[in-house]
Amino acid sequence: MGLINNIKSYSETLNLSEEKRGQLNSFLDEGFPTIKDEDWKYTSLKKIITEDFSIENKVGNVSDSDITNHSLGFENQLIFVDGKLISSPKIKGLTIDGFTDFESRNNNAIMNLNASICNNGFSITIDKNIVIEEIIEILFFTTTKNNFSQYRNQITVGENSEIKFVEKIQNLNNSTSFVNYFTQINCDKNTNVEFNKIQNNTSNSILIDNVDVYQKSDSTCAVNTLIFGGNFTRNNLNFEQNGSNCESNMNGVSVLDNNQFADNHTFVDHKSAHCRSNEMYKGVYLGKSKGVFNGKIMVRPNAQKIDAFQSNNNLLLSDDSSIDSKPQLEIYADDVKCSHGCTIGQLDDDALFYMRSRGIGIEEAKAVLTYAFASEAIENISVEPVKLLAQNLLAQKLNVDLDFSL
Amino acid sequence: MLTIKNLKAGIEDNQILKGINLEIKAGEVHAIMGPNGSGKSTLSAVIAGNEDYEVESGNITFNEEDLLDLSPEERAHKGVFLSFQYPVEIPGISVSNFIKTSINEKRKAQGLDPMPAKDLLKMMKGKMELLDIKKGYLSRNMNEGFSGGEKKRNEIFQMAMLEPKLSILDETDSGLDIDALRIVANGVNKLKSDDNATIVITHYQRLLDYIIPDFVHVLYNGRIIKSGGKELAHELEEKGYDWITKEADKQWA
Predict the structure, then answer these.
(1) How many domains in chain B?
(2) Kind and range of the H or E element at A253?
(3) How many domains does chain A have?
(4) Which of A20, B28, B43, B194 sits in a 20 to 30 Å window from A232, CA-based?
């Protein structure tokens, strides 16, 4: 019983290489992290891993309407059903393959688990000197009940190329699903990449989402994370800058209610001089929801002239919601500009009265102010339908019928 | 249109309004003047429904309806509008979006469909001309980084858009230079009709040179101690408040 035992028995049916066997054993020795680990201090997997998840995927069926209902409807869609790639777009300069193994540099227990027995995912390679105008939409559907699944993806962007993604993981049944997800993004020189994550899964979904971004000089990469759904979400977003004039951007919006939990752990490793990072996370907490933010910025000894900005703003809209927020700056260079700020607050009563006196009902006024609060991060997203989706989901979550656009 | 009877109200245990009586009919302009701390802003806040203030006794009826029973948004839907002395900054919401939301919320309460965006923009354009507001203003965030004068002009712009029955202008002249004052007053005068009424709350007589009141009331220590025609404002400008307040102090001592 329990997830670890199920993983163990599943792995015995596999013919693993010595290396993968080693990775698995090191996961099995260590187990899932507990709140004794500094990085998991406020985030407990204890209850989750006692559940009896099945590991094997049976590939189910997904109807066209499922796809329409759960996608933003972009023309170029990469669609996975229970780990199997069923559809992939054909675009000049873009090579898309199913699971292709690669080595990752991150080797904590969860990444070892992913590296050892994961055999699903994609590999996308973008040629040099190509600007892909079309948005690539990546959809992962799960139809198997009480399923533990893993994905291992790699995106490699060639020199001087540009591309944008929208990604979503969707459970199509009401059972608990657990996804351990990993994407490595390699940005070559002078590339521009935007990756939008829509985390709006069913109310009993569990997600550990790991993203490692490696940047070379003159590259810009943005990862935007919208958390509206799911029961438990842990994001580990890591940037490593190797080369001058890199820019790393992170925008996050979490709007949680009931018993939802979401943890955003970010890490920017400034290894080279003359680089920038901008980080803006906005959290809105209703009901008994709980959030965690941990933003680590490391500036290595030779990484001079770094401009790093981090902000984490939180709105607690109920008595029982909570947030643990921790900025973590380690600066070993002396000529850098690093700023960070963290706020935890409520809606401004004066502003609420002002709006009510203009005929805007109290719930709508709260929604407008909440939208105004989150909009700074939403506005940084360049893909218009994603912005619109964020606005609609926010209105839905706050139970108002409002359109924030004009 | 508005009838206030023996209104007593305050914040927590501090009684600020000590029995206000006021009758305002459609088509009228009333000025409420008085020294600092006399309760002018409290009166406007209570009419608009600010929940920070507690009404102890008395009543306010607005077109035969008990106003005190209504929430601030319901009062707005019925046609009450308060131009704030200190308009609130709301970063993240554009002026156009804010006004669109308030107009459509009012329409929703009246059982109407949202105003089509095209009509709304046309209406905004017209009202902007009326108040000499420059292009680009609509996309700015609500009052964020606005100068004092711009904030006040924005209040009157909202008033023009919402077309209220009763407008309360709380110290609208403060922070306005003479040109802005003229434009704002001109806007208010053009919006005046036989169906709506205006309460102008002000310290100085200056604004009343541009918005001519039918009645002037002096509020002092939570009571209206003198009422008269527009000539009363001139008298106050000349003689100050002392000559009336001393008498009142004696009477209520």
Answers:
(1) 1
(2) strand A247-256
(3) 2
(4) A20
- Provide the residue range defining the domain that includes B158: 2-252
Please indicate, yes or no, whether residues A65 and A208 belong to a single structural domain of this protein.
yes
Q: Per-residue confidence at A236, pLDDT binned at 50, 70, 90? A: very high
Which pLDDT tens digit goes with each residue over A53-69? 999 778 888 999 999 99
Chain B CA closest to residue A379: B92
Best residue of B41, B44, B90 to probe chain A, by most A CBs closer than 10 Å? B90
pLDDT-wise least confident of A128-132, A162-166, A384-388, B174-178: B174-178
Which letter, b or e, does each residue of A333-349 get, where b requires 16 or more Cβ atoms within 10 Å of its Cβ? beebebeeebebeebee
Kindly provide the ipTM of the predicted complex, given to two decimals. Answer: 0.94
Same domain, A377 and A296: no
Please check whether residue A84 is in contact with residue A145, taking contact to mean a CB–CB distance below 8 angstroms.
no
pLDDT, residue A140, reads 96
Whole-number pLDDT of residue A32: 95
Q: Which domain does A65 fall in, by range? A: 3-348
Residue A404 pLDDT class (50, 70, 90 cuts): low
Residues A309 and A362 in one domain: no
Q: How far is A402 from chain B (nearest CA, A)?
A: 8
Neighbour order of strands in the sheet with A162-171: A84-87, A76-81, A136-142, A162-171, A192-199, A220-227, A247-256, A276-285, A307-316, A337-345
Top residue of B83, B97, B113, B159 to mutate, by most chain A CBs within 10 Å, is B97
Q: CB–CB of B168/B50 below 8 Å? A: no
Q: Report the gap between the CA of A372 and the closest CA in chain B (Å).
A: 4
Residues A298 and A371 in one domain: no
Q: Are residues A233 and A114 in the same domain?
A: yes
Which residues of chain A have a CB within 8 Å of the CB of B102?
355, 358-360
Query: Minimal Cα–Cα distance from A360 to chain B, Å?
Result: 5
Extract the tokens encoding A272.
Answer: 């080279």
